[in-house]
User: Fold these one by one.
Assistant:
Number 1:
Amino acid sequence: MKQLKQVLGGDLRQFTMVGALVVLLLAFDIASGGRMLTSSNFQNLLSGNAYVLILAIGMVMVIVIGQIDLSVGSVAGFVGMVVALSASHWNLPWWVAMFLGLGAGALIGAWQGFWVANIGIPGFITTLAGMMIFRGGVIWMSGSISVPVPDEFRYLGSGYLPEWGPAFTGMNNSTLVLGLLALGALAWAQFRKYQRHAKLVEVKPPLWPVIVRVALFAVVLGYVTWLFGSGRPGTSFPVPGLILVILVIIYHVITQRTIFGRHIYAVGGNRAAAALSGVDTRRTYFLTMANMSFLAALAGIMFVGRATAAGPSDGTAWELDAIAAVFIGGAAVSGGIGTVVASMVGGMVMAVLNSGLSLMGVGADRTQVIKGLVLLAAVAFDVYNKRQGRPSIIGLLMRNRTAVPVGTATTSEGATPAK
Amino acid sequence: MGDTRVILEMRHIIKEFPGVRALDDVTMSVQAGEIHSICGENGAGKSTLMKVLSGVYPHGSYGGEIFFDGQEVTFRDIRASEHAGIVIIHQELALIPELSIAENIFLGNEVVRGGLIDWDEARRRTQDLLARVGLNVDPRASIKELGVGQQQLVEIAKALSKEVKLLILDEPTSALNEDDSANLLDLMRGLRSKGITQIMISHKLNEIAAVSDAVTVIRDGRTVETYQVEAGHVDEDRIIRAMVGRSIENRYPHHEPIIGEAILEVRDWVVEHPIIPGRLICKNSNFHVRRGEIVGFAGLMGAGRTELARSLFGRSYGNFVSGQLLLRGEEVRLTTVASAIRLGIAYVPEDRKNLGLNLLDTIRRTTVSANLKAIVRRGLLDFDQEYAVAEGYRRSLRTKTPTVDAGVTTLSGGNQQKVVLAKWMFPDPDVLILDEPTRGIDVGAKFEIYRLIHELADQGKAVVIISSELPELLGMSDRIYTICEGRITGELPAADADQEKLMRMMTTTSSTVAP
């Protein structure tokens, strides 16, 4: 047990989430007769869910500051329609249409940010209004018919990385390069963390847990890379997936390593104390709400690329999936807690559930019921443990750690804010 | 006066909270039909005693016995005490602003007929009750339309509806103007003549003199003395002495001040209440603080010290009306907290948990949170530097924690305060305003914080200490200002001050400071 602790290192909750994901994947693979862990399924999983995960990136920031955004689906659909209409009806070049869409997203974000930050209307009401306004807007603009988008968008929504290089690798080389980069980055991060830790402690900490951890990463990452890269010729790690990964990296850095990121957690943790520490709480609210709508616009554009056309009912109920992803990923309803990476894991759990159940032939209706129950269970488990003042089950297993009860951070990296 | 039998006896009441004994063997008796005043400093235990009596702290959570109307009583909750005829009116009125007077009066006590509320009857009874307190308002009016004085009367009407035998009023005139206060005192006399016994918690000596039949002084959780008032004459000196009389032992480190030129000057500072228009919370305040000096601000709760400090700190409280703030000789307009921090002012809030800390944070993140710019390298936060800063303060302040990665909720109150102080030392301010810096902290930790304050002063910083503990102010300050009801009523070197002098200036509204 002690060795296991050492390998798992700091982020217990995140590892349990990832563990749950792995278990789900394996369970569904067995239950569906091996159709879960295939190249094409993984590729579909990622490109088909990338838009929800992008929404979750913005949503976790909104939830951390103690607000919520119910309009993201409508805004995504609205912007998708704007892009489609401007390209096909007004004959604008595709990239102009795209910038127009992103600009619209930013404007909508400023609008909602204004009401929340400057006027003080709760995000729930403002974005509920937004949801109604922009859903109506899509239907109005489109005249209730689908509008096609130029082919260039297909690349963003369902494209693949290019093929090149030697054939001996047996797989798509772009994906291989990505996989190697990811492994390199992870290994480097782990070693840096080890070095930092070693500098501060008198007795040099053991190196073997780090090596084991990196080896485990290598195995898992290697498997996943191979899975993505060895599919049907012409396929690889999907472009929407790449966009998602880039956004995750950017927003991880913003939320964990910038002053603005600290402000978000400060305002979410205790708004009055943040104000007395010199944080401009209004600006924090404004930018977070505006950012959400901007990401919603991006998600909408990716979606119409994949669907090749924008329809009047695009984006319906997307906000619920995004919100569910954030809470399964461990965010707190009262704000102040939640990370981008954990929300991605939460979103993948939902996505794998969807995919697995569908592979098993379970209808969409029953899948919906199961998803709802999973969301409830995941959050109830967390709330129950915290309320009883008990450490989480994982905490009980890891009892020998220097006692840090629930409500504290357990990393020196700062990868997860205090929980 | 009423008959001379004893209606209430509280014997040897002991009430403990983790780490502190709020009531330490309090004994008190009240005669039927009298107005009995309870007097004491902030934190002496007055409110705690009344909470024990009214059942807020139920039987079993305190030691000692209570005898009411000749019988021992063991109240399990407020309903039980109200059922016995004891009603308490708290300092913060427990009325719902959006509901009507009638709805408020019968809240929890509704007039029910056949399963439904009988509003007609309720309104009729409300009318009667309002007449008894002299309030001529429609029972259907909502509370938020009434002035504070009228709301107070509604509370009393509510008590009357419960057929009160013993009415407890906690600082009843703290929110009232002179007219409303006089009105209330008249009402109290009227109730007394109807045979209702009243206990009034107050520190306003003039009001105590106006209505009391007896006075009990409580200090540090103990009864100091109870005495009967003769013919409306209350010996103020005697009360003040009883309220504060304790010696200042060697609880404060020795310090030789090295004082430089004035660094902070406040002139004619006027601030309006944020919600109640026209009500001033800072009335023409003038003061200054010098480098290396420790200045104390003394005043009772509600006097306006915190409000003054926060209004200076980037206007984070109240509506600024007029006044000048000079830093290092130059006038500055600090309209945001960020600008105040940037120009070298730090404010450590009195409410550590709600205003001073993000309880979700770790020690290291809290330590750097007021000066994030200092740990930025190439646009991103440098975690190594953050750790170094946090560790540095952990060592120099001797914060008891195994690691700075621990959450702040794992720390004791004293250590939490050290982290908060570290947070405000990090931006290297020139002026530190410490609001109740040792509240809720044990004696040992207090001494360490006092030494830290001395170090800060020796570094040439100006330190302002707002405190409700007079011995603390006398032991630490070089100079003390007293505030009463928003006005600075006195300024004197600590060497010339004593607790009685301070208490006197804290309880009178006329200013003795030359303009």
Number 2:
Amino acid sequence: MNEGKMVTIYVMGKKQIVPADLTIMKAIEYAGYQFKRGAGCRGGFCGACASVYRKRGSYKLQGALACQKIVEDGMIITQIPFSPNEKKTYNINELKADASTFLEYYPEITRCLACNTCTKSCPQDIMVMDYVQAAIRGDIALTAKLSFDCIGCGLCAMRCPAEIVPFNIGQLARRLESKYVEGPTEHVLKRCEEVKEGKFDSEISELMIMDKKILTNKYNNRELRIK
Amino acid sequence: MKLAYYPGCTLKTTGKSFETSALESAKVLGLELVEPSRWNCCGTVHSLVKDDVMHHLAPIRNLLRIEQMQASGRIDEKRVVTLCAMCYNTLKRSNNVFNNNSDLARKVGENFENETSNYSGGVTVEHLLETIRSLGWSLVKDKVKKPLAGLKVAPYYGCLLLRPRGIGIDDADNPHVMEDLLTALGADVVNFPFKLKCCGSYHTVEMKEVVADLSHRILKQAEEAGAEIVATACPLCEFNLGDRQILVQKKYATFKSIPVVYFTQLTALAFGLEQATSFDENKPDPKPLLKDKGLIKGDLK
Amino acid sequence: MSYSNEGLILRFSAENMAFRERVKELSGEKIELCFQCGACSSGCPMTEEMDYLPSKVIRMAQIGIKEALNTKTIWVCTTCFNCEVRCPRGIDIANVMEALRQLVLRTKHDNFNLDELSPEELKTLPQVAILSNQRKLSA
């Protein structure tokens, strides 16, 4: 167990001694800082806590999520609470699911050098270069698949020498994939029809005027798995 | 024979007709062109400065993929065939730089830390025209089902297929590989001096009027030499000489439009593979001319 | 560099030498071999758009005149290598053009910014056009 074990980290250059089993985020708070920006869900899903660090004795620059990564001795850390980017405005109904869409909205994608710096920076172990290249080729399905775990933390965009914002590419690809490649899901469409036809109207009206105790009871005893 | 095939990004998008016609024609000649499962944009045009490492990563990463393909048995030899003349030039030159500069090779290796193997420098880069040439023109003649009789074709080489010296697939001043192919396909070859003149390349982005001028010069000379159609080996040339004819016609009222196609589309046509010719994608439309010559029946779709 | 009234006398300063050496280093070309025959200029497809002929720009590089970096010529070059094929002294002029471009691009200067392209142009241009344009004309 790491009980009592402490490590040394440097928060924006200032040395701090913190417990070894804390995440970067908790360690920074332990040291007395309060997060005004750069903290969100604290669960590895929102991408707000993008952090960049080096360890003493190593030239390697690494990316991490502060809420997930456990501190290591010698970490020299800073936060990147926001990565400057412009998400282009588009009407998903008017787009085509091919490479020309990326050229139209994000033409800088052609500047990709295949240097793999984005992949190296990604705290989610995503093959970022591969999904950017897939978008260049017009392989929407592959771009969507490879970028699935992206939470938009922005570390790739900060480091890209070609000034591409990969997570915007991934997001557009996933939207195109779901609308045009996968298409609408049958059961969702069916359910929407049922709602329009008023299949659930009476049930909902009942629930809305139901006594709170009976409602609570119903909720607690609801069917959890549809057979 | 299974060879690796490197498409390049444009052949998957605006240049799809080049790929479709090439892959089918190659099959007829006994070539199975296998695409790597992972590849990236080659980053054309080749970086010419001596201290650059970063711009060589993209092409060399592709060559590594070819080596990995051979190691896993997907292809027989470490040879990669390209269609786009610009990809050909970039891959070949970066390969040479890698093999002649151990310092660069080392730095590239360091940047490939996420890769499962290191590039050894052993891949041969070739253009499809070279590959066909090595199989022999008599083989091509044998496979012709519909000779392109009476079709006056002007071969247009452009720049990066032939230059600089040592990289080109043929003599830079007097090439004849495309003429040989077209002759084997039964066409009437129209030679014209501007077949080697640059189309303006990437200046089609920010100086498209100049590209219109260059295209006009090239196409006018081809027409005056008697050409009815132009064959090219590069998707940028095809765009500058073909699609940009709209600009040419705006500027030069007396200009007569002339269809521009890929040499592989004509090859597919001669091999009787009409469905692989994809003539619908060319601008201006070559189908009226080809129908006139009795080479295609009607609309292909 | 100083000029004299009795005709043009060029005196090389250390700055000129340094610039020439830098161009030689980046391009890897022996530009001192150029004897101004003009073969490169005769084969160049873009001379009408240039302010100085390619052979003149090589001359500038040869004697270390930094104004070579301010010419329109270096940006108008299409890297077609016609000059390389024709040069009787084996100089690759396209390499020299690239070195001159890089000396400008490496000072955070882009010659062409993608932001200037309209959506219509972006829809029609083939990818290879945009990417090769950016390779040669942007940092």
